[in-house]
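I am still getting used to backbone structure tokens and would like to learn alongside you. Label the sequence line and the structure token line clearly, so we can match residues to local backbone shapes. Would you write everything just below, so we can both look at the same thing?
***
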Amino acid sequence: MDIGDTDTIMCDKCAAYADAASITADDNYATGNELLEAAPSTGCKPTLRQFNVRLQTALAAEEQLALTGDVKALGEWQLSRCVPLDRLDELSWQTTVRLQSCRQIEYRYFVYVEDAAGNKQIRRWETHFKPRLLLPCPEQQCNSPVDAFGIANPLENTQSQVHRGWLNHEAIVQLKFNGEKMFQVHDIETFDPQHVQLKIVPVEQSSGLHVEYSKQLYGRSQLQLQPQFGVPYTKGDIVIFHITLPLEQMMLQHFRLECYSLDHQLLGSATLNAAQLTGSEGLLQLHIKSAQRPDETLARLRLPYVLVQPYQYSPLDFKTTYAHYWPRSWPNLDVGHRGNGKSYIAEAPQERENTIASFLSAHAHHADMVELDVHLTADGIPVIYHDFGLRTAPPGKQIEKPDQLEYVLIKDINYELLKRLRIFSVINGKVFEYPAHNAEPRTEHRIFPRLVEVLQQLPKSLGIDVEIKWPQRRQGGGSEAEQTIDKNFFADRVLHEVIRYGCGRPLIFSSFDADMCTMLRFKQNIFPVMFLTQGETKKWQPFSDLRTRNFMAAVNNAQAFELAGTAPHAEDFLGENAAQMLQQARDQGQIAVIWGDDCNSKERVQYFTQIGATATCYDRSDLYMPEAKQRAFFNSSALLAEFEGQCRI
């Protein structure tokens, strides 16, 4: 029996009013209702408390408003046990709940829809760092103020804080117009992909099915409903169709991609169904058929997709969120790149990169955070290492030249084998061997530490940037590396360990893969996510995803999917307009953590601070840390106390 069926006194959508004394006890909660647990001597009696809230804009026809809070009668932050409100008029909602009059109660409002199976989808929720407070009141003297949705404390802040929810019983499919040469056209006179409008139309309509899009332009990239005759598209545009649908509908749902001319004439269409989505990501081959001559193919379209599934382990709740928690009062932070810096180079630091020893070295030199790189082994273990693979050789084999080495990918190796492998690097044409994990007697110096070990052994006062490694396709063809692990599985395995062992400290996710960032954003509501980009660089070949090509494209993508911000490459900020670019990101409420070799000097660390970087990620905290810095910023019990709300277990 759902405890919410017995202890919540709410509108007729959830339960009828009941007398507190008649509420049935639940085995999991002693009496099953905190109303019965108040000591009579305190004079604390159950009292009907009214909740009134007014919206700034009306809800869609299928949307409902609900509240949840930190007591059983309000569902204890659980989606399934929420308290729906009644609609009084277009903007006003209300409900009444029997609560202890002497208790201070925390609560939040959220907007939801129900699918055909009765499962709730969170459309939007109040994301203030601290929930609303319902103060104690004398019996029969409890007033009922009118709350403003999204504004928890109008005396302190009149800016609305509302964000999209996380996935529970639904999935997201994104169809991505984010590359070059996506269309192969048979007759440019009949179908011109430079001047077309695109629309995704569900063939079957069902509750909980919702189609939106983002056309990524500065300040206007938010997800929104499609225009009647589609979204204008031309080569170089970034348009992402964002489809939310119930899990039960996944294999049954069909869609039609409609292509209109600029004067709103239907040119042609292509059909697709969710069953074609054979993995977490892939490439659909669509044939756009003429609207006038259905047997004629106007164009072929190579359409990338990503499928985001709900986080598969423990359910999350409305208690709090740190997904956008980065107060502007914080100083520019110093982030240790791979700990105390790259080590497979000439003049490397004493500690090998991405080891616990390297992270602790950065911490000892007052780094506020460290950046680390996470891969998944063949047996699903998240491990810390930078490259997608490693150079190795059989035991006992004498190695003199680089071509004698073998290259193996981490995703193809079980963790126990990985710990035994010999490790080599090639520096200026010379081969160097390093101790294997099992050959290193000093535990903290061992290569390939598990993510869980790092989370458990690093002090809470050292923040962590968890970079998820996922190979990118290059503009000129090919990929950084092969990847055969399912992307949802990868994300869930890392999230499971971070949620369980990484709470209670400053922690942020990042990835060069825009879709991995989208997954991390919509699978969970606890930690912030940054989009890592290499930008406009002369050092590496560009990636094929247009969202990675420059800083503003990254800012637009972060706005579209409500990321905390970006981690751009330092090379983008060596020109005269660097400070202006960073200001543009701040104007969208985003952080920007700058990284790269161009950060590696005391002068450059100072420069990036001066132009307004949120944080600077660089090698060698022992060499380049500002001399005046006496301690790490998070080395404060008061600051760390703010992160205790992350912990759910």
Observations:
- Residues 170-308 form a domain with the Immunoglobulin-like fold (CATH 2.60.40).
